[in-house]
Amino acid sequence: MVPLFTRMRGTQLRPRIVLKPPDIFSSTEKPQARKLRSEQIMQVLLPRHSFLLVACLIASPQSVAQSQNSQQAEKQTPEREDVVVIGRRDLGDLDNPNSAVTRGTLGSAKTGAGPIVSRSISAYSRRFARCAMKRSRDGLELVRQVLDGQINSATQRYAQTRLVQAYAVCSQDPSVALRKGLASKSVLYDTTYYDRGALFIEAINSFVPELLLTKQLTANATVHARFNAREKPLAEMREPADRRYFEMAVCLVRLNPEIAVELVRTNDSISRIGNLEAALVNRGRVCVSGAKRVYFDATQFRFYIADAVYRWAVAAKGANTLVPES
């Protein structure tokens, strides 16, 4: 496999291979399958992030057509903005030989430093994020600026740094939190993304713990319009690879919002989380170009899904934020 990143003197790391997923910011464009080589790097994230989505791709026009027909039918359903709670899903995708995501892909060395390292970093980020959800007026204002601001803007990055510093006692290393604004630390990953992802997960679980989006909502034209109007400008300053992976997550949540929210909310076993992630990809293969096999770091995948869930929930509610005033 070719190197994921190359570095030239005085330049930033840049992805060698980039495949653009369907444009899911547009509610009128239909996802299209792509015929690709047997193995490609579909998405990579930022330097030291080692977050990649590798796919052995076999495009399936039939599955794309079925997905398009399903979406068209759902768009005819009247908009509803209620809260829906469903029972536990019985999923066995990880053990299905036809699954795009298996136990082997989730534990593959292709996904970076490995799931144990990633989960360890995430645990510290989650601990910080839970502290940040305390009903402090000043703290919640910073949370809003992080989650509802323009991602990667100076204001949004400053708010995240200040938030970590304000709750440094909840971080992995308080001295690092105060100096660098990082709640977790790693020489292998850029933990800024772990901190941000943890904030999205904890905000959903703290402020809308029983919210579950429906396909009727994410397929609704009015909700699409709200989503586009809000999210296009907020995504403009994302790093290119960060934006591409975010767009893919938005697509997956759009097609299967119930599974996506259950993934964000669950505190079950690693196997349960893996089955939910596999189900989300298997039922949204159009978002990964009909991939036969998909590899990703399960922890990192989950916080991108949480990012997308939060934004679809805001659009469904017709609100500007899910974070309360106090």
**Strands side by side in the biggest sheet:** 3-4-5
| Rg measurement, Å | 19 Å
Distinct helical segment count: 13
Structural class: mainly alpha
Number of strands: 5
Strand content: 5-15%
Structurally, how many domains make up the residues? 1
Q: Determine the N-to-C terminus distance.
A: 50 Å
The profile of the biggest β sheet is:
3 strands, antiparallel
What overall geometry do the principal axes of the alpha carbons give? globular
> Helical percent range?
40-55%
How would you state the average pLDDT, rounded? 77
Element string (H = helix, E = strand): EEEEHHHHHHHHHHHHEH
Low-confidence stretches: 1-52, 55-71, 73-88
Give a description of the structure.
The protein starts with a strand and ends in a 9-residue tail after the last helix. The protein has a three-stranded antiparallel sheet. The chain has one domain. It contains 13 helices and five strands. It has helices at residues 61-74, 103-106, 115-132, 137-148, 154-166, 174-180, 192-207, 215-218, 221-235, 240-255, 257-265, 270-282, 298-317; strands spanning 5-6, 14-15, 40-44, 52-57, 291-295. 49% of the residues lie in helices and 6% in strands. Mean pLDDT is 77; it is low at 1-52, 55-71 and 73-88. By secondary structure, the chain is mostly helical.
Which features characterize this protein?
326 residues; three-stranded antiparallel beta sheet; two-stranded antiparallel sheet
Brief rundown of the structure:
By secondary structure, the protein is mainly alpha-helical. It has helices spanning 61-74, 103-106, 115-132, 137-148, 154-166, 174-180, 192-207, 215-218, 221-235, 240-255, 257-265, 270-282, 298-317; strands at residues 5-6, 14-15, 40-44, 52-57, 291-295. It is globular.
